[in-house]
Write a structure and sequence with these properties.
The structure holds 2 protein chains of 2 kinds. By secondary structure, chain A is mostly helical. Chain A is about 70% helix and about 0% strand. Among the domains of chain A are: about 100 residues; about 55 residues, Arc Repressor Mutant, subunit A, CATH 1.10.10; about 120 residues, no CATH class. In chain A, helix 13 packs antiparallel against helix 14. Chain A is built from 21 helices and no strands. Chain B has one domain: Dimeric alpha+beta barrel (Alpha-Beta Plaits). Chain B is about 35% helix and about 30% strand. In chain B, the strands form 2 sheets. In chain B, strands 2-5-1-6 form a 4-stranded antiparallel sheet. Chain B has a two-stranded antiparallel sheet with strand order 3-4. In chain B, a hairpin with a 6-residue loop joins strand 3 and strand 4. Chain B is flat, with a radius of gyration of 20 Å. The chains are: A mainly alpha, B alpha+beta.
Chain lengths: ~425, ~140
């Protein structure tokens, strides 16, 4: 009883909860009114500060989103007044009382949120700047939360955001949707930023923990938001499907020492059925919208093969090989080729797969990629070439930037001695 | 992240009052709410329960006693749920406050357990460990 009462009256956390739900719409609405994305973000942060000061005493208002927009607008008017620019800008601002109606107009706000997503993932920005800006403005995360997720100092995240805003201002990026001729490339940039966030949580490239699932969960949430904004874009649903079907395996991916458990060894009873259902639904929507699958839908289809298989042995590896071949045709990459080799090893045996992997090793494109010697080692073990396998595992351990992963490679190498 | 279940309960009076509202209006309000949860990427699952009386299997005796209707003294009917994936209970509360419900309705918010709630010596986790050792041989 006492616990429940404390939880619901924690005002600060209540403000943060409202912020996560409303921040994208608040920043987007303020950006439309001021025509200035960077200013809108500042105003929204100021409004959040005011809410944190006021709500613990007054309680959360009935319409918290409208309250925050109203405060943001008032701050804008104050700013322009101080700058002597009210005549220039005043006309743009509706009466604060109108804010409630605007937030209640979902379609208009949805378009503004979409503009926000496209700006945060604008091609003039560096990848890490887009990641920080997307998580903060669209996701409603604080700089501290982003810093914690990426294991960098808070000041670093703040600098990235400040610099990103300056870059957008210098490039005179307007608060608008991309023109039709740029649209496919711009959408693809948005999807790749979301997928980057997902992957950083899914297999952290650095640091002591192998997974930081909050980051992946947030990426999935943002992809679902985007799917709501762009319901007719098949690859957005493809990305939702890929993330959901991959995240479904998270509960089985760590053992009791928090070390990685390979797909073959995972307890499939622990896979998240709700996420599998969500992923399958999203993939069906993607398939219903397009004649051919895009790269995300194809990868989702591969993840679906795993999700539906009762065991590694009972997996439809032939189908997975075909899906990887299709993926290689539309989005060729050495990593896809390596994954195809793994599937070929399961479908046809290690010798055929080793030829693919050897070609990749000769190509040097994956020279710094720990998974390449890792996969090669598995194939060599299956072929009985244990000394070579051990060398490859040692190489994989040296290349891995993740402590947990490195320990698994080292342990396997020792087991072969 | 955690999962929270929003459990909907209503008094008989609330159910009766709800039936006075045109059905299409109810569907539209619920539809909008569900869409907002979906588009925010937080909805994991949800269902409504049909109004006709159910059956209770009571384990007070062996074999269990099967009776019609809800628990004996219940004044509030459990008539639906949503499961949301959100980082804090406060966010689940914020979403709950936005549900299109009328007086006499209540939402109880409970955290759904996950693998982290089970002790490391849990049978299933042991089973997994054994399987791993076997697989690595």
């Amino acid at each position: 009883m006492a616990r429940a009462r404390r939880a619901v009256t924690d005002a600060r956390r209540a403000v943060e909860a409202v912020w996560r739900i409303e921040s994208a719409r608040i920043v987007a609405t303020l950006a439309r009114y001021t025509g200035d994305f960077a200013l809108a973000e500042d105003l929204a942060q100021e409004a959040l500060g005011e809410a944190l000061a006021a709500w613990p005493a007054s309680g959360v208002p009935v319409n918290p989103g409208a309250w925050l927009v109203t405060v943001g607008k008032r701050r804008a008017i104050d700013l322009w007044r101080r700058q002597g620019r009210e005549s220039e800008r005043y006309a743009l601002l509706a009466e604060p009382a109108a804010a409630q109606e605007e937030l209640a107009e979902p379609d208009a706000v949805a378009d503004d949120v979409l503009r926000l997503v496209f700006i945060a993932c604008h091609p003039v920005l560096a990848r890490e700047a887009s990641v920080a800006l997307t998580l903060r403005t669209v996701g409603g995360l604080s700089s501290a939360e982003i810093a914690r997720a990426f294991l960098v100092p808070v000041a670093t995240v703040q600098q990235r955001i400040v610099r990103a805003k300056k870059t957008l201002a210098a490039a005179a990026v307007r608060f608008e949707l991309p023109p039709p001729q740029e649209y496919p490339a711009r959408l693809s940039a948005v999807l790749s930023v979301l997928y980057l966030i997902f992957n950083e949580g899914h297999a952290a490239s650095s640091g002591p923990e192998w997974m930081r699932t909050e980051l992946s969960t947030e990426a999935l949430r943002l992809a679902r938001v985007l799917a709501g904004l762009l319901p007719r874009e098949p690859e957005v649903h493809g990305l939702v499907a890929l993330m959901a079907l991959t995240a479904a395996r998270f509960p089985a991916r760590l053992d009791r020492n928090r070390d990685p458990v390979l797909l073959a060894d995972q307890d499939r009873a622990r896979w998240d059925r709700a996420l599998i259902a969500l992923g399958e639904e999203a993939l069906a929507r993607a398939d219903g919208l397009a004649a051919g699958r895009g790269p995300y839908a194809l990868q989702a289809a591969i993840a679906q093969c795993h999700a539906l298989a009762p065991s590694v042995e009972a997996t439809d590896w032939q189908r997975i090989v075909l899906l990887y071949e299709a993926l290689s045709r539309i989005a060729p990459s050495p990593v896809v080729e390596l994954n195809r080799a793994v599937a070929v090893a399961m479908a046809e045996g290690p010798a055929t797969a080793l030829r693919i992997v050897d070609a990749l090793a000769a190509d040097r494109a994956l020279a710094a990629y720990a998974q390449l010697p890792g996969v090669r080692a598995e194939l060599l073990v299956r072929l009985g070439r244990l000394d070579e396998a051990r060398e490859e595992l040692e190489r994989a351990a040296r290349l891995s930037g993740n402590e947990r992963e490195r320990r698994v490679f080292e342990r396997k190498a020792r087991e072969l001695s | 992240m955690a999962r929270y279940m929003l459990i909907m309960r209503a008094t008989d009076e609330a159910v009766a009052a709800y039936e006075q509202i045109p059905f299409e209006q109810v569907i539209e309000a619920m539809g909008r709410y569900n869409e907002s949860l979906r588009n925010a990427g937080v909805l994991v699952a949800g269902d409504g329960l049909a109004p006709e009386p159910g059956v209770v299997v009571d384990f007070s005796e062996t074999p269990p006693v099967v009776t019609d209707g809800p628990y004996g003294e219940t004044k509030e009917l459990f008539n639906g749920f949503w499961t949301l994936e959100v980082p804090t209970i406060e966010e689940a509360v914020e979403w709950a406050k936005r549900a299109p419900l009328t007086p006499g309705n209540k939402l109880e918010i409970r955290r759904v357990t996950g693998p982290e709630d089970f002790p490391a010596d849990n049978e299933w986790i042991q089973k997994q460990a054994e399987w791993r050792e076997h697989a690595e041989q």
